[in-house]
Amino acid sequence: MCPNGQELRYATTNKQGYRKYKSNGAKCAGCPLLAQCTQSQNHVKVITRHVWQDYLDQAEAIRLTFYPRKFI
Questions:
Q1: How far apart are CA 33 and CA 2, in angstroms?
Q2: Three-point CA angle 18, 37, 5, nearest 5°
Q3: Which DSSP string do the residues of 13-66 spell out, in sequence order?
Q4: Which burial class, exposed, middle or buried, applies to 44 when counting CB atoms under 10 A from its CB (0-12, 13-18, 19+)?
Q5: Cα–Cα distances in Å, from 69 out to 47, 63, 64?
Q6: Which of 15, 27, 32, 68 pairs with 41 at a CA distance of 20 to 30 A?
């Protein structure tokens, strides 16, 4: 999601395993939060996210939970 609440749509996956999500440039051209979001001339915000990032986020959340350590 962009700062104004617009959904970023999936565009493509590159060879390195990163998915690209892009905003709609026509909608972003008149957005009051454009300066906070992107500096591109075509008014398109692009986010890249690795295909395994959801799993890495889950592992990080589990790592940060509090469980008594039994095997120290």
A1: 9
A2: 85
A3: E-TTSEEEEE--HHHHTT-TTHHHH---TT---EEEEETTHHHHHHHHHHHTS-
A4: middle
A5: 37, 12, 13
A6: 15
Structure tokens, 60: 């990080």
Amino acid (1-letter code) at residue 10: Y
Q: pTM higher than 0.85 for the full model? A: no
Per residue in 11-64, pLDDT (tens digit) is 999 999 999 999 888 888 888 878 888 888 888 888 899 999 999 999 888 888
φ/ψ region of 51 (left if φ > 0, alpha if ψ in -120 to 50, else beta) reads alpha
